[in-house]
Amino acid sequence: MSGPCGWPQDRDAPHPDPAGSLLVEDDLELRVPNERDADELFLNVDTNRDYLREWLPWVDDVTSVEDETAAICRSAETREKGEGCFYLICLEGNIVGTLSLNSIDWDNRGFVVGYWISEESMGKGIVTKSCSRLLDHCFDDLCLHRGALEVAVENNASIAIAERLGMRLEGITREREWLYDHYVDASLYAITAPEWRERSQG
Hints:
Order of helices and strands: EEHHHEEEHEHEEH
Largest sheet: 8 strands, mixed
CATH architecture: 3-Layer(aba) Sandwich
Shape: globular
Helix content: 25-40%
Distance between the termini: 20 Å
Number of strands: 8
Structural class: alpha+beta
Number of helices: 6
CATH topology: Aminopeptidase
CATH class: Alpha Beta
Strand content: 25-35%
Radius of gyration: 17 Å
């Protein structure tokens, strides 16, 4: 599949940009944040601080609405450079988590996803559906080839999401991430565009 202006066959052609919003299903949407979202996003983080802190290393760095505003501004710069994209997961118009392209490797047509969701929104299939929509977008619209997800080896909820998405376990990265006071090992899951399309058609 060719992207705009011949990308990816023509590596000198401009690559497509990630969408500003993606409809997952009725009342469930992914959208790029703006500074007006900082208050609600911070409230979500603050309310779920202990829950999120179990697996996310950045939680202690977000202590105010201003910290969240700065993070949103940084994400806008990252998107403008084409290096990634940060989405809010919105259910019935309310922010319940985030989903992001943590990195995009346009040269090798690869990307890495990451996410979190509020504790009260767990167990409803929201993250799996949202990730599925984002993978569709990356493979079909952005013409990327390989998607990856790294999760701590004991993070069973995220491992279940990777498996529901049809991702394969490629290996274990020892002491992959410093989590406040200790290192954690990570499981690397991945899926390619042909594998994703075969799974979708199956």
